[in-house]
Structure of PadR family transcriptional regulator:
Amino acid sequence: MMILGLVKWMQPVHGYDVRRELLSWGADKWANVQPGSIYHALRKLGEEGLLREVATEQVGARRARTTYEITPKGVDEFETLLRGLWWGNHQTSDPFVAAFAFLPALPRPEAVAALRSRGQVLRASVETMRASMESSWIRDSKPVGVSWMYELWIARGEVEVAWCERVADRIEAGVPYLPEGLASQDGWNVGEGADGRH
């Protein structure tokens, strides 16, 4: 969807310019667009009839550069993908959630330290995004939607920082980890506090 959308927006456009624009948006970090796969994706979209090559030019010893445009079939596919993502509710999987499900397997001090560390990393990330938003790079040269996405990520990051702190405080306070029936089972005693609570 990202590649089809950018070709539609910038056409006629070289693959190099599509790659540069995606990287300038940071799409390699938030849209799982890998820089090395962009040229392959352009060729594949061309083979599927979603894009068409309109010119190939070579200047001196440089590699030939192909210029692309989107086809009517490509426009339909882009709009279908776009609306599917706008109207759907897609949850991203975070490996941390799977690890957190086994909270009782960690000693309380380690769980507290890990959560506080996660909060610090997230806080630094939020500050970096905030600085990027305030720079002219985002404000003046990118579509307004990119800066609004940064607002969303900042808000999510701030919420998770606060959550990490709250949960770390609860663990430090000795809030029980498990229901009474599970607390006595073997294999779940690592998370005991100094007072023996789970």
About this structure: Strands lie at 13-14, 51-57, 65-70.
